[in-house]
Design brief:
With 505 residues, the chain is α/β, with parallel strands linked by helices. Helices cover 25% and strands 25% of the residues. The structure holds alpha-L-arabinofuranose. It catalyses: Hydrolysis of terminal non-reducing alpha-L-arabinofuranoside residues in alpha-L-arabinosides.
Length: 505
């Protein structure tokens, strides 16, 4: 144990319930962008490809992550997408100029193929409709095509396309990042609010069981944030169930202490959007609570420069291929911890994205599928972070970074799974040089023993994985003890930790 160095304490108690974790916070995202679809999940010539051309090795890794929901088909892509191009006989589908990413969209994969793939990997789909170049009509037709059983024009067309049973897609995004100047068909808040409301209203008439996500700001740094939320929700509050949040972080200045504190910004973003939703709720005298769908989040900056050199109008170019290092994995862990601590309002979150494009899973053409560093905190949270999120009562030393003050070295979340009767403590030591001595009071969990302490740590914050070698991968930490209602452990400097307790140790 450390001498008189860095020390923190944490109390875990069954009574301090924040909320039941909605498993959909472990969602992800596949956009028709770069090598996510073409050359990612879909590579017909690959040795592991199934009859539809989907790679089996990629499916296996997605299944390992146990992703409950996947957003599709965009992203910026959706704002110029004609969904009708992606259904029916593949050989008759048009090739289109794809304007969001300036590629060619061959439409070999469309709604029905993707739904088949999602079923195979055990995920629900969060479908986005185009409110950039299109509107009410295209959205209600797509919903009728997907969810209506039959006996109407669009539902019978689906049946003619070989899909007898409706897809029953529950969650629908009303457009994507409509506040962004880069968005095809960008709108003012008032324009978007009206269109989203009318689209949502028509969609609910087609299928009253759906859930709708109103488009929030593209990031907390947008000049129109949070006015965008206030104005759009005035229109969409009654028709929508969630408002979306998007946020990506980077470490361009190479200031790792500041970078690891970025989840403080995330925390502030969530609090501000929650407050704005509650302001509209009060204004409308509404009884309904608006929930948050963090449907795009990740680290994204490594690939920015190389992306400017990409040749336009090709199919599946290597766009947004961030090669993640160890410190990126730590921030991903910290962002997941933040979602868990806001389990009462954040009900969905999609790590953007899933394969090749700013992704935990990478593929080589004709070769291997492999795990980036960020795969691991995502895997651990998805596997062990289901149940009740408990409020950690923390006493931790703090530091000041470039953009944040009072940053606790210990970042943590606690999940109690009633089914398995297991308690999991997720903990990050943000200190870059010193180990942190942690004492957890778990007296409320009598008879629990240590199952394992998983640690993700590397001496080099910039270490990366490759197709050939997993330099950054989890290992079992030693020295952690659970005795007389207390867990005592030493968290390595710059580390992600998963401490699991249960009765059946
Ligand atoms: O995830 C990559 C892009 O980031 C998405 O297409 C867009 O919605 C966001 O700006």
């Amino acid at each position: 144990m450390a001498s008189d160095k860095l020390r923190a304490t944490l109390i875990a108690d069954k009574s301090f319930v924040i909320a039941e974790v909605d498993k959909r916070i472990y969602g992800s995202f596949i956009e028709h962008l770069g090598r996510a679809v073409y050359g990612g999940i879909y590579e017909p010539g690959h040795a592991t490809a199934d009859s539809l051309g989907f790679r089996g090795d990629v499916k296996a890794l997605v299944k390992e992550l146990d992703v409950p929901i996947i957003r599709y088909p965009g992203g910026n892509f959706v704002s110029g997408y004609n969904w009708e191009d992606g259904v029916g006989p593949v050989e008759q589908r048009p090739r289109r100029l794809e304007l969001a990413w300036r590629t060619i969209e061959p439409n070999e994969v469309g709604t029905n193929e993707f739904m088949e793939w999602a079923k195979d990997v055990g995920s629900e789909v969060m479908m986005a409709v185009n409110l950039g170049t299109r509107g009410v009509d295209a959205a209600r037709n797509l919903l009728e095509y997907c969810n209506h059983p039959g006996g109407t024009y669009w539902s019978d067309l689906r049946r003619q396309h070989g899909v007898a049973q409706p897809h029953k897609i529950k969650t629908w995004c009303l457009g994507n990042e409509m506040d962004g100047p880069w968005q095809i068909g960008q709108k003012t808040a008032a324009e978007y609010g009206r269109l989203a409301y009318e689209t949502g209203k028509a969609m609910r008439l087609v299928d009253p069981d759906i859930e709708l996500v109103s488009c929030g700001s593209s990031s907390s740094a947008m000049p129109t944030f949070p006015e965008w939320e206030a104005v759009t929700l005035e229109h969409t509050y009654d028709v929508a169930d969630y408002v979306s949040l998007h946020q990506y972080y980077g470490n361009r200045d190479n200031d790792s202490a500041n970078f690891l504190a970025r989840s403080m910004d995330l925390e502030h973003f969530i609090r501000t959007v929650t407050a704005t939703c509650d302001y509209i709720k009060a204004k409308k005298r509404s009884k309904k609570t608006m929930y948050l769908s963090f449907d795009e989040w990740n680290v994204w900056y490594h690939s920015n420069e190389s992306d400017t050199k990409i040749e336009p109008w090709t199919i599946g170019p290597a766009q947004l291929e961030d090669h993640y290092n160890f410190e990126d994995a730590l921030l991903i862990g910290s962002m997941l911890i933040t979602f868990l601590r806001h389990a009462d309002r954040v009900k969905m979150a999609c790590l953007a994205q899933l394969v090749n494009v700013i992704a935990p899973i990478m593929t080589e053409a004709g070769g291997a599928a492999w795990k980036q560093t960020i795969f691991y905190p995502y895997l651990h949270a998805s596997t062990y972070g289901r149940g009740l999120s408990l409020q950690p009562i923390v006493n931790s030393p703090k530091y000041d970074a470039q953009d944040y003050t009072d940053v606790p070295y210990l970042d943590s979340a606690i999940v109690y799974n009633q089914e398995s009767d297991e308690l999991t403590i997720f903990a990050i030591n943000r200190h870059l040089e010193e180990a942190l001595e942690l004492k957890c009071d778990v007296r409320g969990f009598e008879g629990y023993r240590l199952i394992e302490h998983i640690e993700l740590h590397h001496d080099d914050l910039k270490a990366v994985n490759t197709a050939q070698e997993q330099h950054v991968k989890p290992r079992q930490a030693s020295g952690t003890e659970c005795k007389d209602g207390f867990v005592e452990t030493l968290l390595s400097e710059a580390s992600w930790n998963v401490i699991r307790l249960g009765k059946k140790a």
